Amino acid sequence: MKLNKSLIAAVMAFGSLVAGQASATTTALGPIAVGVPVPFAGVANGPFTDIFTFTLPANGGSGYSVTDFTLLPLMFNTALVNFSLVSNADGIVGSADDQVVKSTTAVNGADTLSLTYGASPGGNYYLSVMGITSGSSGGIYNGAISVAAPAPVPEPETWAMMIAGLGAVGFLARRRKA
User: Which residue in 8, 56, 130, 167 has its CB near the most CB atoms, within 10 A?
Assistant: First the structure.
């Protein structure tokens, strides 16, 4: 049986169309500890949206970054398009309670995207990483999450000493004026 060239071309076009659809993966990173950076990474081919779920402790702030890992630029290359931190109270990705806390977008793609988030009460969150690969073998990216300890609250004795010190400075300034 002889195959028609246009039939072969149509099958190949359909295959490349299916292969070019956006891929998506969800990876659970678990609880994030204060002061211990947690790495994450992804491998994709074509457009992608990857989700990384985790739980934050109550903290003094957190930082997030994702970077294209260019390995032989013609073989592996990733253009990062959007990077978002999403609050996810019920722990179910894509449910009605998901709220974007911080987000950054690179219109023409970027090699690195980062976010910082101030003190949080803790709970379930996820990172959404969107991009497109341009390498012949796809693309690779990696990132990290870091969490800072909450600022310590001064003890009552410390407050008393600070107020006494300010009072003494005020008394000396007034005395010099007189």
Answer: 56
Residue located via tokens 């071309």? 9
Sign of torsion over alpha carbons 160, 164, 165, 167: positive
- For residue 153, pLDDT beyond 80: no
DSSP assignment of 117-162 equals E--B--EEEEEEEEEEE-BTTBEEEEEEEEEEPPPPPPPHHHHHHH
Inside any domain, residue 10? no
Query: Per-residue pLDDT averaged across 87-105, rounded?
Result: 94
pLDDT band of 16, cuts 50, 70, 90: very low
Is 81 within 8 Å of 44 (Cβ atoms)? no
Q: What is the reported pTM?
A: 0.72
How many distinct structural domains can be found in the chain? 1
The domain that holds 47 is classified in CATH as 2.60.120.380
